[in-house]
Amino acid sequence: MADGVRAVVADDSHFMRSVISDILSDGGIDVVAQARDGEEAVSAVIEHKPDVVTMDVEMPVMNGIEATERIMAECPTPVLMLSAHTDENADVTFEALDKGAVDFFTKPGGEVSMEMSRLKDQLVEIVVSVAAVDVGTTKSGGANSGDGTGSTAAGGSATDRTGAGAAAGQTTYVANPTLVIGSSTGGPKMVEQVMEGLPIEADLRVLIIQHMPEGFTGRFAERINTRSEYEVREATDGARIGGGEGLVAAGDRHMVVKNYRNGRLRTKLTQDEPVNSVRPAVDVTMRSAAETIDDPLVGLILTGMGEDGADGIRRIKQAGGETIAQDEATSAVYGMPKRAVETGCVDTVLPIDDIADGIIDAITTEVT
What we know:
Rossmann fold, methyltransferase activity, cytoplasm, protein-glutamine glutaminase activity, Sig_transdc_resp-reg_receiver, Sig_transdc_resp-reg_Me-estase
């Protein structure tokens, strides 16, 4: 609930500061200060110690990236970036996430006041969710994090799992595995971390559904492509992938697995009605994957608000797939993973640092 949430609103436009502050106030959030630039935002955070900051990207004196970095260093506070819908701002927004911002929300174009009014419920919801994130502690796993269920930290390196000529007691990858990842608030950095930990030898086909608007998913795919061994791109209608490749669901499009044959899958993009109030929806991709793919399938739910992905996890489990959820301790927002776990269809709950190993365990078999 918004009751008791205290916010600082930073934007160089007086008009936008007023619109955002009014929306948050109407939603029950106490706006304790407004800032015209990054330097004022840092001072306001130190003085008022709010629960959350809404941070414009481009501001004079000190921009949103520098301000976020200062806030994280001097007075760690959850930051929600408010970004204009441009390629340049997409790059800057991801840089802000690298500096510690929790998530971002795109500023509307056109008639700003009318658009903001239409999006007000979404803005209030994400501000409240971001405010609940604990940025004062390290959100990572490790040997002592989470409940340890199914932990694979001691399971050996990827080189111990090579397929050809594996000796008894070693493990080998199953043929033609597919991984479907769903995430939302706080998810981009988590998705990148998981993908960085997956060896190309696993030959996964990877489908990524991150709740993210149009104009940002292409840049997100480029980041993953650069940081992982997998060839990852933004999904297009009719896109096909095989082993060692991945697709990121395009913003404002559902990604459906259309067909699967000989280790290659083809996707279709649709603008059907939002599911769980979002598009792209994790459930849409997971359901279609469960219905279409007859080779090994793994479903993963990472941090995020809402219940998207819970039914998809259920469908993957019913189809004989393996299912994993991020644990509460390392989730920025324990909404989507919690709902998935509550279905009773999650095989393993893991801290973020152990998830890549958990995926590998799910697609390896013991050689006897």
